[in-house]
């Protein structure tokens, strides 16, 4: 097969280019001929860099700083809210300390120096299905455990009053059954009248039934009920709520509908009490 012979190399063209380049270099060095061109090119590069920085990088940097500042502000605000909620709950505990504990020695210890084994713990709600709470009759929430699970039966309060009690615990969370749950009951009293108020399944509403043939006293709207302390689970003398309606039940009993003053929706920080023993 025949091979194609290479063509002639354009040596003259290369020589001319070298001469021209040398001439331009000489003129620039000797007379600064291209200084203005170089300055214009450098100025263009600087301007381009500034435009890119101001249009692209600076807004991104500012957005990042703004996001971080906003997150820090949110975290700070959440911390302040938590501290306020805990303060409200502890104020409730302090104001009602003479009703929460039957043992005067514990009360004396509280007033003078809160011991490490004092029978209450601060807790944080980990989950609360508020839609289920508003629509259905099973009212539960869960607390993050502290160093150990909360003791079953512990009374759970917030700054508004008694909201429920510990019903179950595992290694991570403890379940709270609210006093309005249809499966819950709390002993209450008003003067000399005692009853077990059952949860109605409606938010903040309890039901108390009694036989009018056995109890002749009449009740009125607004009458206040307190925890009776019977059974040793709930502290005695804490205001539970007041009558909002009175109905005649189908079996002939009188049904008192009592609205609880304690609202579990107000805050996520609560206190777990153990009024009759030490955890």
UniProtKB/TrEMBL annotation:
Q: Name one GO cellular component term.
A: plasma membrane
Q: Which domain of life is it from?
A: Bacteria
Question: InterPro entries this protein is in?
Answer: Cell/Rod_1, Cell/Rod_MreC_2, MreC, MreC_beta-barrel_core
Q: Does the keyword Ribonucleoprotein apply?
A: no
Q: Does the keyword Transmembrane apply?
A: yes
Q: Provide this UniProt record's keywords sorted from A to Z.
A: Cell shape, Membrane, Transmembrane, Transmembrane helix
The Rod shape-determining protein MreC beta-barrel core domain covers 151-272
Show the stretches that span the lipid bilayer.
12-29
A Pfam family this protein belongs to? Answer: MreC
- Family as reported in the entry's similarity comment: Belongs to the MreC family.
The protein's name in its UniProt record: Cell shape-determining protein MreC
């Amino acid at each position: 097969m025949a091979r194609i012979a290479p063509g002639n190399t354009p040596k003259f063209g290369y020589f001319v280019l070298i001469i021209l380049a040398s001439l331009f270099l000489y003129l620039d060095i000797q007379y600064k001929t291209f200084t203005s061109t170089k300055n214009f090119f450098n100025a263009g590069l600087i301007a381009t860099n500034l435009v890119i920085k101001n249009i692209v990088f600076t807004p991104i940097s500012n957005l990042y700083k703004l996001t971080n500042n906003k997150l820090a502000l949110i975290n700070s605000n959440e911390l302040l809210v938590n501290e306020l909620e805990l303060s409200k709950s502890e104020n409730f505990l302090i104001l009602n300390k003479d009703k929460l504990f039957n043992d005067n020695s514990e009360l004396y210890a509280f007033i003078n120096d809160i011991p490490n084994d004092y029978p209450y713990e601060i807790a944080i709600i980990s989950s609360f299905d508020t839609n289920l709470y508003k629509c259905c009759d099973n009212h539960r929430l869960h607390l993050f455990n502290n160093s150990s699970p909360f003791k079953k039966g512990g009374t759970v309060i917030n700054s508004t009053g008694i909201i429920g009690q510990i019903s179950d615990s595992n290694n991570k969370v403890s379940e709270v059954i609210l006093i309005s749950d249809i499966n819950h009951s709390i002993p209450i009293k008003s003067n000399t009248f005692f009853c077990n108020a059952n949860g109605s399944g409606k938010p903040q509403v309890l039901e108390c039934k009694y036989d009018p043939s056995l109890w002749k006293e009449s009740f009125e709207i607004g009458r206040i009920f307190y925890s009776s302390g019977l059974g040793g689970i709930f502290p005695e003398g804490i205001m539970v709520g007041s009558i909002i309606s009175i109905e005649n039940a189908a079996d002939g009993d009188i049904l008192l509908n009592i609205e609880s003053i304690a609202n579990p929706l107000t805050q996520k920080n609560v206190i777990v009490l153990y009024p009759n023993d030490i955890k």
